[in-house]
Fold each of these.
Amino acid sequence: MALKNIVALVGGVGGAKLAYGLAQVLPPGQLTLIVNTGDDFSWHGLRICPDVDTIMYTLSGVVNKANGWGVANDTHHMLGMMQQYGAEGWFGVGDKDLATDLLRTEALRNGEPLTSIMSRLSKALGVLQYILPMCDAPVATMVDTVEHGEMAFQEYFVRERWQPTMRGLRLDGIEKAQISDAANEAIAAADAIIIGPSNPWLSIWPILSVPGMREAIIKRDVPRIAVTPIVGGQAVKGPTAKLMLELGYTPSAEAVAQYYSDGSLINGFVFDEVDRNLASVNKGLQTNVFNTVMQTDTDKVTLAQQVLHWLENWG
Amino acid sequence: MALKNIVALVGGVGGAKLAYGLAQVLPPGQLTLIVNTGDDFSWHGLRICPDVDTIMYTLSGVVNKANGWGVANDTHHMLGMMQQYGAEGWFGVGDKDLATDLLRTEALRNGEPLTSIMSRLSKALGVLQYILPMCDAPVATMVDTVEHGEMAFQEYFVRERWQPTMRGLRLDGIEKAQISDAANEAIAAADAIIIGPSNPWLSIWPILSVPGMREAIIKRDVPRIAVTPIVGGQAVKGPTAKLMLELGYTPSAEAVAQYYSDGSLINGFVFDEVDRNLASVNKGLQTNVFNTVMQTDTDKVTLAQQVLHWLENWG
């Protein structure tokens, strides 16, 4: 069957790669991204949403392709001046990036929901897909570490470069959050739901923890698949494998598949070609095998095409 | 007598030139600038203080010398991105400038008085003089124009390039303002008070209108002089002469001297050399004649030396 509405749950750079591929393949208006906001934080009075912005910059084409985040040809003159004033400068906000942060912060102060703000901003940049923050309420992923106790996410991830040993995660404010109408409607109308190759704990777990989100997904009788973020026991990028070890898992695509299939969240899983041997042994899940390591834009489009082709021929 | 403490009332670029000269000549800690904040405004949630920043950038040496305001080698990447979002971009805030605005806005939101904030920021940039905002309360100079009615100052000055015809001025919020302890103490300890060659109505009148300011100055039995902003009937820079005509004055240094001497605010006035003929006819004021058109840093230092020499030999 032809797929009209695809919903993808994504975090930062890894998810953005697949989102880019899907956006190239699907007609405008048929792709909705539900994006992690647990990484969001306030910095010198600005509200910063790293994952949402990464998706918006990626889909609008302004992204810094070398980094996978931030705006192309950006500078750090504001940050340099801030350091002249003696302020700490470990979070590298770019000058162009600041425009997003300023407009968002101003609109939030005026009472506009984050969902509405990101819709306006992404449309202004020419994005034809729907970028939905996982919720409008502020939720902060807090990382409990052996070395420093509990840390704010960006302190753990950026300042400490995810080197501390994680022993737990907590979502501050999650009890006050709820799934937005827009996310609820997109999931209800979805012909397939894709969990992107993002960090299952740092990027996807916060989304799934938004009250109403997991239930809305599970009750849909459509393909609900995840694309592995682990290839050959290693993370494609970032701390996924390190974190799995710290949380007591064996770092493998199979463990991720089991993590997601617990509670019947997913009914399908994409393994990488190097893990072809793992794909056959999974019970209760439909599986497929593609090249999931997206190094070029062509890789991203190819994976999106393969995944969509599989979903179209589901069952 | 040797002068130990000089207080200068200044606005933007013209006042900053004399402030620069005075700062080169006077030992550290002997110069206090009381600076107009009527131009201050909020822009996308940021609190912007153009005159205070111009003085701080000038005295710290980071100023863009070609403009006389802003930071040297600044860029406008944030502004360009904001325009990509469709936001209006007539106020040209630079990327480095943004660091000042962000730190100031954050501190104001945390309840720190503007006087304290600017003291911290200017010290961090190595400024050895005291830069005091005219008051801590927000005051907004509102310009009543024939063409557009009342306009916020920056709309009149920057967006409309001071082309509308002024028919009146109002200081919104002035009734809630009061002279700060720091300004009061600086004036009480001053051996001389200098009104810089700033726009008497747009830059100096707001300072003098702060409750307690004019009285604090007048009661001091010390030289209280103004340096002319009008040379040969023309403004050195900006709209002073145009504005004088619109307010019913003849644009001349003499009219400025009379404006300031009304109510005995000043007891001395510096004319430019081209207005030497006007200097002799003023009654009740001590006068002197110098080259007041400061084109080079040497001009600024020379004028400061001449003014200070005159004040040292006062009476």
Note: DSSP finds 13 helices and 14 strands in chain A.
Amino acid sequence: MLENTERTELSTLGEFGLIKHLTQFIEIANESTVKGVGDDAAVIDYKGKKTVVSTDMLVEGVHFDLAYMPLKHLGYKAVSVNVSDIYAMNAVPRQITISLAISSRFSVEAVEELYSGMMLACHKYKVDIVGGDTTSSKSGLIISITALGEAEENDLVYRTTAKEGDLLCVTGDLGAAYVGLQLLEREKRIFMESPGVQPDLEGNDYIIERQLKPEARKDIPVLLQKLDVKPTAMIDVSDGLASEILHLCTGSETGCNLYEEKIPIDPAAYNTAREFNLDPTVCALSGGEDYELLFTIDQSDFPKIKANPDITVIGHMTHKKDGVNLISKAGTSVALTAQGWDSLLKK
Amino acid sequence: MLENTERTELSTLGEFGLIKHLTQFIEIANESTVKGVGDDAAVIDYKGKKTVVSTDMLVEGVHFDLAYMPLKHLGYKAVSVNVSDIYAMNAVPRQITISLAISSRFSVEAVEELYSGMMLACHKYKVDIVGGDTTSSKSGLIISITALGEAEENDLVYRTTAKEGDLLCVTGDLGAAYVGLQLLEREKRIFMESPGVQPDLEGNDYIIERQLKPEARKDIPVLLQKLDVKPTAMIDVSDGLASEILHLCTGSETGCNLYEEKIPIDPAAYNTAREFNLDPTVCALSGGEDYELLFTIDQSDFPKIKANPDITVIGHMTHKKDGVNLISKAGTSVALTAQGWDSLLKK
């Protein structure tokens, strides 16, 4: 999939050479970055604000398949999924460190592609690359990113502070990233069987992009502040709606009623899911990788968000003893457990 | 090498189960840890001090060989090498995040062993595990740790601020970790050829421990403060003395004269190196993994450190145009480049 035709072996640069080569164009965008790449450690000055830190690891063959994932997109995605966790704390990401383990089947040009995607995302989210580690791997590519951000104590939103009666809201739409993955895997199978066939992804731009180039919801903390709404709890949707709701409920010791008919699903994703004989609701509940924000608000804040096209109320928090339930379109209540959607999948 | 005889498959716990299982005994030791494991991100409050952050990745087959590296030691080492970078900034490590990619050949018990070593080191260095990621790997074990620490701005020591005339000092002794590795690899070869033969590592405890269970110099920033010495520049010795001196000189735009006869080498390491037909000086220059601190001080501070058995003056910084030189025991001057010691190796 690489467009670069040149191939420079990693061994020609060595570890320090590669790091120098990759980091030479880094520009620091944040005042809080006192010292970036180049010393034993980076130095950051949040001037009394809280430091927020999150980390994620992406492993080739587990989290991505380079047969359909261009390296530049992969780099972009690796940064997006990390800063998403910082936004989910209602904090502002400022710095990241990047560790890469790379096998010798990757060329310098390939690593440059990966890095250019990371730098693009850093520019988008205005975060500085302040450190990292680069090493060889016996097989495949492993990316580990740690994102740091800042927040005033009063702005932070945890996943443990939802209360009974709160409205459950989600941004954007859900399930498309998973449907996109199905599309890409189908085209890969077809390509493996008939290498001459061009992939047929037309009309599926949005779905494919949700999988290959997810965006973190940088806009939502800003929007919520503008609307004068502070969520009572918040989490990002990385593992699927069901899993995240269960995290909120377990953390906050509440129950929840989730209404199937309210779950926002993009029409193209809905139709493509159907083509694959997948239940679109199941894709939203368990697909994951949407990187939308799931949050709860006090009922009194409903008027402030109800007109916003980016936010959908999908349920409400209940007493713990009432459990975590999916209310289906037919009006039946199904307990939403980590396996809850397995039964849906089989219907 | 595992002592545990039970084997619980990782799949029986799942990702969240494994994280919960591993993190259940975490105790928070630092006031600055506001929120540890369990949310989208950890929250830290350094109360206006600077945040210092460093990251390292350890890859099976590249950085360690489980044929002779017990998992508990590996866990300990993974934490040590990370906090070492924080001490090298003259800062205090406070928190770490741990990301693991683990193949299915590891059992839950094996991961527990690894984690117990990490927790032991965390206890030793008084750092809190505040987050991480756990994922599967297609092959082998990958550990990525990010260490965070705090420092007052005036206490921070960079590698770019040494000046001409400064004395070059190093803590402890050098080269033993590399000699330890040679010993372990020899015993592995013997074991592979004759599996019945017990490893002969007697009398080499110190050397072996330097390789398997390195300690970060937590005591040195405290000692220097007690001695009222602030280094003009500092770096930790992870890649070997030569490489670190070159980093100091490049960063600080100075030259350096390093005196071979001054380089502190443990007598047992010296003798064992000789047994392997290795030049002990080369082991110190290029062996790496010593995790000692290399620093420069103003000449006027010499009386304060000269009586200290833990600190050895090994050279002095010169003008950039004078280059970076190793003055051999015979009095000849050899340019110390990244390949400088290659010529020594062949002598």
Note: Chain B has two domains: 10-155, 167-345.
